[in-house]
Amino acid sequence: MIKITINKTVLELTEGNITEQETDAIVSAANSSLLGGGGVDGAIHRAGGPAILEACKKLGGCPTGEARITTGGNLKAKYVIHTVGPVYHDGKRNEPELLAKAYKNSLALTSQYKLRSVAFPSVSTGAYGYPLNEAAMIALKTVIAYLETHTDIQVVRFVLFNFKACQIYENTLKALIQ
Ligand code: ADP
């Protein structure tokens, strides 16, 4: 676990399962239908129960790079922020901008709902195939830039699902803050 302070916010990196987080919101890496998927999204729907899918059905999907918010159902987190990262092709199809937008829009919802804490998975780096090194750089740069200009969120936590992802995020963060 790494903790650093950016402006008024504690930025944390930890290895773990995002469904168990006690932050006010957890972010899901969803697909644009918002009607359930595998990976982290499947795990969140299983852990949070059917109320999340019921709420998602009313939203009519979510374009890539945007974010939507629903109840957290039975999760410890009160809200789930559903964001849709890009599918990685070759890095030349706007993937970096879309991935950055997914993080920015998720943070904007966190602020809009006056939430104190939010946990992110590593969006797009599972089924959507984004190279972990590049995704970590975009995720961390985007979050840091947001926190440098917004002081309302107390904690932003990245919850990485395995040791390798955790190491890559840690090394990327260290390089960025040096
Ligand atoms: P995407 O379709 O955006 O690539 P995935 O769910 O396939 O989304 O993967 C995104 C990341 O979430 C991957 O790095 C994967 O290892 C991770 N992940 C899967 N399950 C969990 C979980 N329960 N908690 C945190 N991260 C998870």
Proportion of beta-strand residues? 15-25%
Q: What would the CATH topology be? A: Leucine Aminopeptidase, subunit E, domain 1
Flag low-confidence runs. Answer: none
Q: What is the H-and-E element order?
A: EEEHHEEHEHEH
Brief summary of the model shown:
By secondary structure, the protein is α/β, with parallel strands linked by helices. The chain has helices at 39-48, 50-57, 95-112, 132-149, 163-177, and strands at residues 2-6, 9-15, 25-29, 67-71, 79-83, 117-120, 155-160. The protein has one domain: Leucine Aminopeptidase, subunit E, domain 1.
Description:
With 178 residues, the protein is an alpha/beta fold. The chain has one domain (2-177): Leucine Aminopeptidase, subunit E, domain 1, CATH 3.40.220. Helices cover 39% and strands 21% of the residues. The chain has 5 helices and 7 strands. α4 (132-149) packs across α5. Bound molecules: adenosine-5'-diphosphate (ADP). Residues 17-19, 29, 39-41, 43, 85, 121-128, 159, 161, 165 line the site of adenosine-5'-diphosphate.
